[in-house]
């Protein structure tokens, strides 16, 4: 019988061990690769803060909010936003809202108070309406946030405080797409509320610069102004009168039971607003903090 052929030398060699350098590279790449974000636990809280880096929703155990009854001088805006929020919480059509106008007049406080009031009125369904704050610099990550919220049974208010755009900032396009223009659009269980000191979310200087440098000035400005048009609900906040300012101060003093004579309260509050050069809910609250500190009263609740 003919002898069996021996395998070639290359086939008889032992398989070499893995290159240690390649193994180290693979391990390093695994460490650099970000882990898949865990699914958000929406039962952890009623409010969250969105962190674009890491695509993470951080629960907020206690929201810094003012009770609805303490918001004075903004009755029409309060009723309108509250009604809009209630409709949304019940699954009915509702509008995205832009709260714009004077500083310190309770725009962001009204958003947080409306969320709390509506959630408190949901009865057995309390906690189904969630508030998510997204920072101005993270607006470009809005589509990623929408993807996390789209498939859940909860309803969400996505809230951006002090929203505005300057210079060559193009992140407003992400917001436009989410509001109406994108192929997916805004999920039915999400509504957007934003506050701004600017009605059109851009400064007058920026608008004038667009007109002076664009080939078609009208179209260049319209592209950015159209962003505010995509908020179906506009609520304007204006500077308060002296009577409204005093009503805010008196409401705070009564709520926190600060022992002060009415005449002294009014005189000091007006003097405080004069030194600040303005009257607003924020100035009223700053005076109350000063007064409570002098009177030894703790502001609790």
Overall description:
- It is a single chain.
- The protein has 301 residues and is of the alpha/beta class.
- It has 2 domains: 47-237, Rossmann fold (3-Layer(aba) Sandwich), CATH 3.40.50; 242-295.
- It has helices at residues 9-12, 20-32, 75-89, 107-120, 142-149, 172-181, 204-213, 217-229, 242-255, 262-276, 281-295; strands at residues 47-51, 56-59, 97-101, 129-134, 155-160, 190-196, 233-237.
- It has a 7-stranded mixed sheet with strand order 2-1-4-5-6-3-7, sandwiched between helices.
- Helix 7 (204-213) packs antiparallel against helix 8 (217-229).
- The longest helix has 15 residues, at 75-89.
- It is globular and about 85 Å long.
* Spans of at least 5 consecutive residues with low confidence: none
Strand order of the largest sheet: 2-1-4-5-6-3-7
Kindly state the number of beta strands.
7
Q: What name goes with the CATH superfamily of the largest domain?
A: P-loop containing nucleotide triphosphate hydrolases
| SS class | alpha/beta
Termini gap: 101 Å
Q: How would you state the average pLDDT, rounded?
A: 82
Instruction: Name the CATH architecture of the largest domain.
Output: 3-Layer(aba) Sandwich
Shape: globular
Output the keywords:
Rossmann fold; single chain; 301 residues; alpha/beta; 2 domains; 44% helix; 7 strands
Summarize the structure in short.
44% of the residues lie in helices and 13% in strands.
